[in-house]
Specification:
- The protein is of the alpha/beta class.
- The chain is built from twelve helices and five strands.
- Helix 2 runs antiparallel to helix 3 and helix 3 runs antiparallel to helix 6.
- The protein is globular and about 75 Å long.
- It binds adenosine-5'-diphosphate and magnesium ion.
Length: 260
């Protein structure tokens, strides 16, 4: 063992290069054997580190996004929602310009029509594309922000959410009147306005939003900010859950004769 090979593991740990630390013994041996130019050996090692680093980052960001399991674009049946264009969703799934300008997505529709699934599917695609996403029930996030406000830490709590290019607020309509009273949701919407995107799913369109904010003026101001740069997806089908349950029943009709 030379002095170099003895020092390398320490140096690589110090520099936090775990992939090179794993690969260098075999790779340098091959390089010696095949007389690779020094630059080629270095490039090969660093390429592996960079590739694995990207993988580790995606893995981390996937965990932090807290997306519901299995609700991806692959498992989303676009034929069931003709009013949602597959091509448009595929374009949004790439991220880019809409996230850079803080454009919002508002998905409205009755329960069971795939709003949460679609939101999560976009989330998965965006994490894959290198963006940071957080999927949360609106009530949970509002509760967290209310706690922060009580501790006089609302501004830093909202600032911490800035690291997410997209914040998915699932089920806005389930917010309770008591939660609306502190207006933390309005603060969040104002803070992200034209900078960071929000995706909202809601059973009810704007008309029914007066219980989500403390007073009508704030409701109007919040909606105004949300829709200024927004993509609105209205899903007016029947519940996918109900439709698939009906289809199952049609295939396997409940045996009504047996019990009689
Ligand atoms: P919503 O959020 O609108 O109430 P969900 O997204 O929770 O509805 O959908 C209800 C269930 O039906 C979920 O299990 C979801 O995966 C499934 N689902 C809804 N729409 C579709 C679809 N177009 N393709 C595949 N699964 C769907
Ligand atoms: Mg939902």
């Amino acid at each position: 063992m030379t002095a170099d090979t003895a020092r390398l593991p320490l140096l690589l740990t110090e520099l936090r290069l775990p992939t090179i630390a794993r690969l260098w013994p075999a790779m340098t041996e091959q390089a010696d054997r095949e007389a690779w130019p020094g630059a080629r050996t270095l490039a090969a090692l660093f390429e592996h580190e960079v590739a694995e680093r990207a993988q580790r980052r995606t893995q981390r960001q996937l965990l932090e996004a807290r997306l519901p399991i299995g609700k991806t674009l692959d498992t989303f049946d676009f034929a069931a929602v003709p009013m949602v264009s597959k091509a448009r969703i595929a374009a949004l799934a790439q991220g880019d310009s809409w996230l850079e300008t803080g454009t919002n997505i508002l998905a409205f529709g009755p329960p069971g029509t795939g709003k949460s699934h679609l939101a999560a599917a976009l989330g998965y695609a965006l994490v894959d594309a290198g963006y940071r996403v957080l999927f949360t029930r609106t009530t949970d996030l509002v509760q967290q922000l209310q706690t922060a406000r009580k501790d006089l830490k609302l501004a830093p709590a909202i600032e911490k959410l800035d690291k997410y290019h997209l914040l998915i607020l699932d089920d806005l309509s389930y917010l309770q009147k008591s939660q609306a009273e502190t207006s933390v949701l309005f603060e969040l919407i104002s803070a992200r306005y034209e900078r960071r995107s929000i995706m909202i799913t809601a059973n009810q369109p704007f008309g029914a939003w007066d219980k989500i904010f403390p007073d009508p003026a704030m409701t109007v101001a919040a909606i105004d900010r949300l829709v200024h740069h927004a993509i609105i997806l209205e899903i007016n089908t029947d519940s996918y859950r109900r439709r698939t349950a009906q289809a199952r029943n049609a295939e396997n009709p409940p045996d009504t004769n047996r019990s009689s």
